[in-house]
Design goal:
3 domains, alpha+beta, 50% helix, Butyryl-Coa Dehydrogenase, subunit A, domain 1, Butyryl-CoA Dehydrogenase, subunit A, domain 3, 13 helices, Butyryl-CoA Dehydrogenase, subunit A, domain 2
Length: 421
């Protein structure tokens, strides 16, 4: 006699299959790519040298991006909402092909937004993300403040503190943040701080500092080697009082997490490594944009520049350099797209694929821009040609958002299962 199989329980119901990975972009993705490229080519590139020399935040360019819908909450929601995960790296590659400093000025707000989306409640997301961007007529920016003078790669060395004042239902923040993109000029600051020093990095939490809050002041502005149009500065917190509900995720959730840690249990907060792995491909895509700009420029130069009566691309050494640049850029893009797709669709990172993409793309950008200078020779070393700026811009991608060495630590731990020192 035939029997009927029991209905699967909620626990047994299989999770939906992730969106199929494809290297063929959809029509919508192609349209977005072309749209952003047009802005990068027509607006960013002509202004890049000027803003690099001025070393000032390019408000006018960001306002233009906002007017056409490229900067703002709706745009970021569209890019983040792509179920394949590829729109965000595509947009970043095109923007940073235009110019890295201006590109960072446009995308820097996304660092704070990512923290709010990743750790905030629905109410916090709805309240604060629109304030991070403002409107097309009144553009705002946001800053994410994590690094400190003594706490870069070693996040456990963070000294900024957050103490809860029960009498006023306020958090009181004290400390100094460094290397903050948009720091001090932002409308909204998102700051990480220690709430329990004994727990090390597991005792950290993130807080929103509302506009105009007393005790939150810009410190020294950083004079940088590259991405000079992007504003980078220290942020000082001196008895900075913020409402209790500005703790991302809420106090109840924080107290539960800290209690688990004190009991020796695993904390969900430790899943931050997965978050980092999911966001690193975007940083890699930025480096890709710089590398591609250098490759395309030096390729055209080599085809038209003549020495000894023939184009210099006829020299095998130069042709091989360009071939290597093309291969390395394509290889890095494949790593970036794979990791971006994994992060968006929830596929588990088992080999630190996000770190692989960021480390590879950053190093490719440095090598590609260096070879571009060599191909242009003396011209490449002058500020009359853009490759020297691209080389300066590229170097930061081996340093920030996790140095190349830190990425290798993460990768080696993932592939070996061992905690290397």
């Amino acid at each position: 006699m035939a029997t009927t199989a029991p209905e699967p329980t909620a626990e047994e119901t299989p999770a939906p299959a992730p969106v199929k990975f494809s290297l063929e972009l959809s029509d919508e993705q192609k349209e977005v790519k072309d749209w952003v490229h047009g802005f990068a080519e027509g607006v960013m590139r002509p202004a890049a040298h000027e803003w690099d020399e001025r070393e000032e935040f390019p408000w006018e360019i960001v306002q233009e991006a906002a007017k056409i819908g490229l900067y703002g909450f709706d745009a970021m929601a569209q890019f983040f909402g792509d179920e394949t995960g590829l729109s965000l790296p595509i947009v970043n590659e095109e923007l940073f092909w235009g110019d890295a400093g201006i590109g960072m000025s446009i995308m820097g707000t996304g660092l704070a937004v990512a923290a709010i989306v990743g750790q905030g409640t629905g109410e916090q997301i709805g309240e604060w993300i629109p304030q991070c961007y403002g409107t097309a007529d009144d553009v705002k920016i946001a800053a994410f403040c994590a690094s400190e003078p003594e706490a870069g790669s070693d996040v456990s060395a963070q000294r900024t503190t957050a103490k809860y004042d029960e009498a006023t239902n306020e958090w009181v923040l004290n400390g100094q943040k460094s290397w903050a993109t948009n720091g001090g000029i932002a409308n909204v600051h998102v700051v990480t701080a220690t709430v329990d020093k004994e727990l090390g990095s597991r005792g950290h939490a993130a807080f929103i500092i509302p506009p105009g809050t007393k005790g939150c002041e810009q410190g020294a502005k950083v004079k940088k080697h590259g991405i000079r149009a992007s504003h980078t500065a220290d942020v000082h917190l001196d008895d900075c009082r913020i409402p209790g509900d500005c703790l991302l995720g809420g106090k109840e959730k924080l107290d539960e997490r800290l209690a688990r840690v004190r009991e020796g249990k695993k904390s969900k907060g430790q899943a931050s490594m997965q978050t980092f792995e999911a966001t690193r491909p975007t940083v890699g895509a930025q480096a890709l944009g710089i590398a591609r700009a250098a490759y395309e420029y030096s390729l055209e130069y080599a085809k038209t520049r003549e020495q000894f009566g023939r184009p210099i691309i006829d020299n095998q050494s130069i042709a091989f350099d360009l071939a290597d640049m093309a291969m390395e850029i394509d290889a890095a893009r494949l790593l970036v797209w794979r990791a971006a797709w994994m992060g968006r669709t929830g596929v588990e990172f088992k080999r630190a694929e996000g770190s692989m993409s960021k480390a590879k793309a950053g190093e490719v950008a440095v090598k590609a821009t260096e070879r571009a200078i060599q191909i242009l020779g003396g011209n490449g070393y002058t500020r009359e040609y853009p490759v020297e700026r691209w080389h300066r811009d590229a170097k930061i991608y081996m340093i920030f958002e996790g140095t190349s060495e830190i990425q290798r630590v993460v990768i080696s731990r993932a592939i070996s299962g061992m905690r290397l020192r």
